[in-house]
């Protein structure tokens, strides 16, 4: 198993536009009081017939079990395990934590196979915070670290609210951000920014984007187009990244938002299209161009989220209180199937629905969604986090109290005090914000005991969606590049690593992988692109940028000679030219070194794990490309 170990010690972050690298020292390393042995599943099931109303918890009740930070268990009847992510020290004593985006934007990264997860939160610089920030949570120990701001203080986006930013469903370190007319992906480890789309190139100057969404395979994106001067919403755009196909749907009045589904095939636009009743839905098949309208009185989505080819949303015209339905876009008549309701018209519950755990290739009937609510009135699920199945059985899992009060001051305004939250890709974790009945907003994660709903544990591996084009292209298999934990005095660009700064001839440059290797077989492959300069590549036993002696298994390159060096002890050598592909393969107790697929040396030795891929660049101008772990 090749685990990815996320960020220990310090991060070296690089930012676009040629700014120099800056080291961001960890601001916090707090080992929480609870341990893994303290964890409990908790939660309980209800149906519309058995659900009862529970009063919201008071501020005093909450303070009775809530720690300053870290793991805790909710009291009965919930008994679930949660993590407090923030407190007043993150905000210089002020109320700086912004609410957690919305239910369809992921605050947690794809952490499958990793010991830790990354968490994005925004801590307003105008209210004592550091701006958009990155946290790391060890899933086993509960150790929590604040890794600091995502953008340096001199960057304009360090002042952003982070509203509408979200993690990729597949790329563990990529966060989507809106930057004026651009949809961008920023690597939260290296700081590198990639422009996905600049709408100025499609519509000209004077436009900006907001309310972005992306398909789960990161190939199709949607956003609201807005006048950059007046901030008037002008309509919805969608962009297919592989083909550069661009769609624009102008809507001049009654517009709310739009969202691409997780398959990338369907686009839902919310607007009052007929001028009566309320908000309608324009449902577009981006593959065929076919459009259909779901009128408000026929069940058009209120608060909603999308799966792969379907929508889960509130139907405010339904006969029963707080009805949530599932609409299957493949059905020509768009019938809605009821998946939740309760008996209390005096509350809105669930107010916000999250299905960011949607799985491709799995029937919606085998999945679940979660929601959160905060109300002044008492009613069924009025101030709780719940999850419910999508098979029509209306089986409901009560997970946790929402811990927010609309009348308390924390959270700046009433909109922020609603406990908006979202699921991670596995459905095991739900993140939300609440003010605990006090003067500040804080963020929390609760572990969702989903096995109570489904009968099986939440999936360990989310399946990445695939958008099938009308004429499927023939493409070679894609091998993911290595994600770098730390980089020093090197430039990283499109899979290329080159020493650009530091001392020429000194051991002061290189990279070490985020990927952690705990067993074989495993192969490190890379291409050599410089002949004269001195550099090394191979496996190291520590997650720090290696020197030559730190590479337990390595190759040394200089002047057209490639030498096998193990802890810098010479073993064998071969010639090389620019563009040659080298590999180091570990299988059992044998290590094979190959050039262009031909093994030229084999070592027999005991391998001590864990290992990390790394490079050591001694000479300026030393270049390696296309490093992958196979």
Task: Provide an overview of this structure.
3% of the residues lie in helices and 41% in strands. The protein is built from four helices and 48 strands. A hairpin with a 2-residue loop joins strand 42 (561-566) and strand 43. The longest helix has 7 residues, at 59-65. The protein is globular and about 80 Å long. Residues 1-39 and 459-479 have low confidence and may be disordered.
Fill in the keyword field for this structure.
Methylamine Dehydrogenase, Chain H, 2 domains, 7-stranded antiparallel β-sheet, 4 helices, globular, disordered N terminus
Q: Identify the CATH homologous superfamily of the largest domain.
A: YVTN repeat-like/Quinoprotein amine dehydrogenase
- Compute the gyration radius: what is it? 26 Å
State the helical fraction: under 10%
SS class: mainly beta
Q: Which CATH architecture of the largest domain would you pick?
A: 7 Propeller
Strand order of the largest sheet: 34-37-47-40-41-42-43
Shape descriptor:
globular
Distance between the termini: 11 Å
E-strand count: 48
């Amino acid at each position: 198993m090749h685990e990815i170990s996320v960020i220990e010690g310090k991060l070296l972050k690089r930012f676009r536009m040629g700014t120099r690298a800056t080291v961001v020292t960890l601001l916090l390393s707090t080992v929480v009081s609870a341990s893994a042995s303290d964890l409990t599943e908790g939660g309980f099931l209800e149906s519309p017939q058995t659900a009862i109303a529970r009063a919201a918890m008071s501020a005093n009740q909450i303070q009775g079990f809530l720690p300053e930070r870290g793991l805790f268990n909710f009291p009965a009847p919930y008994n679930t395990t949660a993590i407090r992510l923030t407190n007043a020290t993150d905000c210089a004593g002020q109320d700086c934590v912004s609410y957690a985006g919305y239910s369809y934007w992921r605050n947690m990264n794809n952490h499958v196979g990793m010991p830790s997860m990354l968490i994005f939160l925004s801590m307003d610089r105008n209210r004592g915070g550091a701006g958009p920030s990155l946290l790391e949570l060890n899933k086993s120990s509960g150790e929590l670290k604040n890794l600091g701001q995502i953008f340096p203080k001199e960057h304009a986006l360090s002042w952003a609210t982070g509203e509408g930013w979200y993690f990729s469903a597949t790329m563990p370190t990529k966060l989507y951000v809106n930057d004026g007319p651009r949809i961008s992906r920023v690597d939260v480890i290296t700081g590198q920014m990639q422009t996905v789309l600049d709408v100025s190139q499609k519509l000209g100057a004077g436009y900006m984007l907001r309310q972005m969404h992306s398909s789960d395979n990161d190939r199709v994106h949607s956003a609201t187009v807005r006048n950059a001067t007046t901030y008037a919403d002008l309509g919805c755009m969608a962009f297919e990244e592989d083909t550069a196909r661009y769609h624009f749907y102008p809507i001049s009045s009654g517009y709310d938002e739009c969202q691409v589904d997780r398959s990338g095939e369907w686009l839902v636009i919310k607007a009052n299209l007929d001028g009566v009743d309320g908000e309608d839905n324009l449902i577009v098949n981006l593959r065929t161009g076919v459009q259909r309208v779901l009128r408000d009185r026929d069940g058009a989505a209120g608060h909603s989220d999308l799966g792969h080819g379907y929508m889960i949303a509130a139907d405010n015209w339904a006969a029963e209180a707080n009805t949530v339905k599932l609409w299957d876009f493949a059905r020509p008549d768009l019938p809605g199937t009821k998946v939740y309701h309760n008996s209390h018209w005096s509350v809105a519950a669930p107010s916000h629905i999250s299905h960011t755990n949607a799985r491709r290739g799995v029937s919606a009937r085998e999945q679940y969604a979660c929601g959160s609510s905060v109300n002044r009135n008492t009613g069924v699920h009025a101030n709780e986090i719940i999850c419910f199945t999508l098979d029509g059985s209306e089986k409901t899992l009560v997970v946790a109290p929402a811990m927010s009060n609309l009348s308390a001051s924390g959270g700046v305004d009433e909109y922020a005090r609603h406990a908006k939250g979202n699921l991670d890709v596995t459905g095991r974790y739900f993140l939300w914000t609440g003010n605990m009945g006090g003067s500040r907003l804080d963020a929390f994660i609760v572990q969702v005991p989903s096995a109570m709903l489904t009968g099986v544990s939440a999936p360990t591996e989310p399946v990445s969606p695939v958008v099938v084009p009308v004429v499927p292209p023939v493409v070679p298999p894609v091998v993911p590049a290595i994600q770098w934990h730390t980089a020093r005095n090197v430039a990283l660009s499109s899979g290329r690593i080159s020493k650009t700064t530091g001392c020429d001839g000194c051991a002061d440059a290189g990279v070490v992988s985020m990927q952690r290797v705990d067993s074989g077989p495993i192969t490190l492959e890379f291409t050599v692109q410089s002949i004269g300069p001195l550099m090394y590549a191979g496996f190291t036993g520590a997650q720090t940028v290696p020197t030559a002696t730190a590479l337990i298994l390595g190759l040394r390159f200089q002047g057209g000679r490639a030498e096998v060096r193990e802890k810098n002890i010479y073993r064998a050598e071969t010639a090389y030219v620019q563009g040659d592909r080298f590999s180091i393969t570990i299988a059992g107790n044998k290590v094979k070194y190959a050039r262009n697929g031909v093994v030229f040396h084999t070592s027999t030795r005991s391998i001590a794990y864990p290992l990390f891929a790394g490079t050591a660049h001694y000479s300026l101008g030393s270049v390696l490309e296309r490093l992958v772990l196979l």
